[in-house]
């Protein structure tokens, strides 16, 4: 009825199967590349976005199936928490200006800050981070073996030195004694930065920086052997934050591009 010979039909069928296999091999190779290049951190949604950028037409479901076939599994979180907030003090508390509004219209409009614990065989380490809510970039950070006011002050000074924000910046943190200290409040005032603080015991008021620290633990801390020395922790954390997280890692909330790329796009548009 189709006026096609049996031999012609089977030849076409074999060629079609071979083409499908060739295409799957190509996609599999690119998936493996991005999985390794992104330090085994990316799951199927992010790898799917990278493939689309290349012009490969493939579904996220197919990417997930191939990753499962190849045994490629992104890092998983582990439950571990060290108390880093001491709100039992008599220092002044700033009003909650953010009110869980984590949206921003430009860089250096809203910064959020927090402290987290970093495990190390040589001794305890604490990381103070400051995140820009518009670009999702870590604009300031400091690692130290003591959870003091100097720790958060150094992170703030670094952020201000690099970004040079204007007078309309809101700095939001929890009620920890470090952020409520006279020294920190004075530094914010000298920079003309408006302080804001979460409600007592409400982690949702500072959810964005909490989420970043969760990503940091899942992708970087828990997927690697515990740091042997504090110097090793400093060096590896520097590479992760400055070269991977800020400049390479795609962020789903800003269109699957890196924070540095997103910031650059903003200044190109307003120029």
UniProtKB/TrEMBL annotation:
InterPro entries named among the record's database cross-references: HTH-like_dom, Integrase_cat-core, RNaseH-like_sf, RNaseH_sf, Transpos_IS3, Transposase_IS3/IS150/IS904
Integrase catalytic domain sequence ranges: 103-267
UniProt xrefs under Pfam families: HTH_21 (PF13276), rve (PF00665), rve_2 (PF13333)
Role, per record: Involved in the transposition of the insertion sequence.
NCBIfam families: transpos_IS3 (NF033516)
Name by which UniProt lists this protein: Transposase InsO family protein
Organism: Paenibacillus qinlingensis
Taxonomic placement: Bacteria, Bacillati, Bacillota, Bacilli, Bacillales
